Task: structure prediction
Amino acid sequence: MAQVRATYQGNFHIEGLGVGGKMLLVRGLLIGLMLVFASMAGCLEGSPSEDIHGEHYNGTPLANGNAGDFTLIDQDGENFTLSSLEGDLVVVSFIFTRCTDTCPLITSKLRQVETDLGDKMENDVHFVSVTLDPEYDTQERMSEYADIHMVDWPHLSGTREDLEQVWSNFGILVDRTFIESHTEVSMNHVSILYPDNSTELHGVMADMMAENSTGWNLTTMALNTSNVSLNYSYHEEWGHSVEGINGSDVPDDYSWWWKLYIWNMSNTVWEESSVGIDSLEVNEMTHIAWAANISDISALPDPTSALAHSHSHETDDNETDSNQSEDSHSHEEETGHEEVEIVNYTVGHNTITFILDEELDRRIAFLGDEWPAENLVGDVNTLLTEDGDHEDDHSTPAAGIFLSLVTMILAAIALQNRRE
Result:
């Protein structure tokens, strides 16, 4: 019987095999290696970024490739390099802090996506927001914007030269005239202080409020604009009462409840309102807050700190939305989810949000701001599943080679034993 033994020099010998047996063994090994390398051919071709399964996506699947690399400055004054996130999914949005409608809405939706993704945000998915207005959006303003909207992912700015290269890599054009047409306006704010002392700040342009608006009108408009749910009751004598905000409902035992506060502009402090929400008259400088009575009132944000970001834009009444590219038009009307190429997509009043895969290839785009947060959540989960499948596929050859070689050796030995 053939035996395998190892010498101290690390060499292997097969005893009991004649010339014919050795030839048979060599022939078996060569055939085995040919089969192994043939099976590897399919595994070595292509990459995850080349497999676009558009029918599974909510957003627009993209045909053009890598987002390139860049280094910009985040809101903490630190250098941020996109390639540092390679290996994970990256959601890239484009904003500017002088924006009063689209940009806060996109940020609010991304915050909801972040909440829905949960633990995946710690290990597999990252958010990055890039400015469209580098001269105005300094590090300090980006930091204030992130604080006001209660998000902590990187908000990036830099020189116009650096940003223009980034915009070009993503296939977008910036409507600079539109952005620089923004002017400061009066804003009303509704702050929310939850039982766990987390806060939110929601703004409404004062000129959007109707004449003789009440605090209740301001509350409903601000929360509806930000897609924040509101649960309330109404009493003929006492008027409206808030029963729940964004799922934080007053418990049945009334261990806590929502209280109304007014911002005192003279003393720059929050004060408990002496009138009901329906009796509160709103003017250009009205700021209110709904706070859980068990929370720490000192945690409420100063609404005047948001005024630096409270802007609107001056446009011609006959202005048309030139930002809807042919790509977005075709995606809305077609149901086939065909891949498109994002080239010279104009942003300013309109915007675009990208999902990059693990190789930092642009895989999916969400055009405009009317997409629901759950759609982006769904596409992120789909990409995570696809990339996980590819990792499994690419991990197969190494184990397969080892097992195939062992099998071929044992088979050759067994054949030789039969001959003997």
